[in-house]
Specification:
The complex is a heterodimer of chains A (about 325) and B (about 290). Chain A is built from 15 helices and two strands. Chain A has about 325 residues and is an all-alpha fold. Chain B is built from eleven helices and no strands. The longest helix of chain B has about 40 residues, at about 40-80. Classes of the chains: A mainly alpha (about 325), B mainly alpha (about 290).
Chain lengths: ~325, ~290
Amino acid sequence: MNALLRHKYATTAIIWALLLTVPAWLPVFGGYTALAGRVLVFGLAAMSFNLLLGFTGIMSFGHAAYFGLGAYGCGLFLKYVSASTPLAMLAGTLLGGIAGTLFGLLLVRRRGVYFAMVTIAFGQVCFYIAYKWDDFTGGYDGLRGFARAALDFGAFKIDIANNSTAFYFFILAVFGGAAVLQALLLKSPFGRSMLAIRENERRARFLGLPIEKHIWLSFSISCFFTALAGSLYALLNNFADPLGLNYIMSGNIVMITVMGGMRAFWGPLIGAVLFVALQDYVSSMTTNWMFFVGLTFVCVVLFFPRGLMGMFQKGART
Amino acid sequence: MFQVVMFNLTNGLIVGAFYVLMALGLSMIINLSNVVNFAHGNFLALGGYFAFMLTPYVGFWGALLISPLLTAVVGYAIEQILIKHVYARNHIYSLLLTFGLGFILQDVCRFFWGPSPLPLGIPDSLSTPITADLFFITWYRVFMVAVVIVAVTGLFAFLRYTRVGMRIRAGTLDLDTVSALGVNVAALRSYNFAVGSYLAGLAGVLAAGQIGLNPNMGDDLIMPSFIAIIVGGVGSLTGTLLGGLLIGVAAALTTVFYPAASEAVIYVIMAVVLLLRPRGLLGEEGMLS
């Protein structure tokens, strides 16, 4: 086993150990378990987004749309259809994922800034629909009037509705499953072709890769995972917020990814830790939180473009 | 009915004119520097607030002349201090940078001028309606459209007949060659950014006279401006002009018949354009695609 691989396994082991023991050590630092849940949700959203940005080299600036659609799909299902948590999550994931897949069809031929602009615009479409469709989505006030239901396995029940530790482990289980799937995806031949597109699109095309199809597929997969994170977010808050669909949320997802390090698998999760901590701290200290968040964005871009994980990686490019 | 349609049509033209001013500035920066300036709406707000500050001393007319110039100076300075460092990097960084910059500028406006809306006084001669029949069309509205026409004509003349303007156009087509011919590309991009900021500042003064000032007044204009650019075609300023007017008028006319869809319609137009003519109405094949 070479050093690099050993380093990788060690990182993964440490991260899992920390995540599994959160309820034991987080209160010591003055945190509460719901905060850790937020970290996992944003971390999953950003890791899913990073499949696109970090591993396919395509930048979307509209991922809040799929995150928000996941949240709304989950919430609407719980409110209007049935009080089943897993089915609601499935509904949210499908809603966001399918929307992303359809939008992706219009996107695949765009590149660079143009791609980003069109993704922003598509994101805003979803925002306006949620915002304007008052009687169905709750409009400006957001979607309320639903609550996550306990998991019922027939023989036994897990009360994720009231027991916050149980709910944390539920989020962690979903997060873990998604992370394993993403890691397998990146190891698969398809994952390798994503990297090839990132490194040199023209050469990958000459090698016979169907670039447009692969980018579309990668976009679609990324949207499904992001929507899954969104559905968890709705469960976490028992609330779906139209601002969760807004381009500002998209910016936050990008920021989380870059801050943590977009060339590292776990980078976005680390970014989510920083982001949630910053958000929690700054909004409790000052009303001018926008100034400080903006300043953080600017400083990260100018001084730490490789993110926290990138600082430990040799040869990572910006 | 005639009055309703006229009301919304003139409204649409005015809104469209704002989209055009905003989108032209954005478009110039995208074309030459490949940077989508998220903070453009905040430059607009800055222009408005500068006018608010200057009006007591130099009057509305003075403010109309000076505030866009001040906005251009601020834009130039910000380009020099922050934005020029990310030109060579992945696009994601310029997006994040201007995104964060927008946050900062918005809170700066809130800090200096307060979070509540402020009015900008306009001369009495401009606030009267032009006829009793069309009471909703004040001279101010006519004036706004006139200023936009002058500004757009001026911009196109600047790009066509001045040396800097010609270099900007050439740089849009092929920056490497322009650079190889000995033009200082870094300076060119800075001037270009200043011109874009000037247009945003001008739009800010005009908007402040119509709807007043608040720290996030530019937020509602930034998305339609993106769409104007996409619809018109990236790389073509005439396309941006056309796109801005088109979505302004389309949104306003939709208000007559189905108000709830007035914002949605511009996105529908964008989707249709992307489906049928992906490069945009006047965009060139292969431009940034």
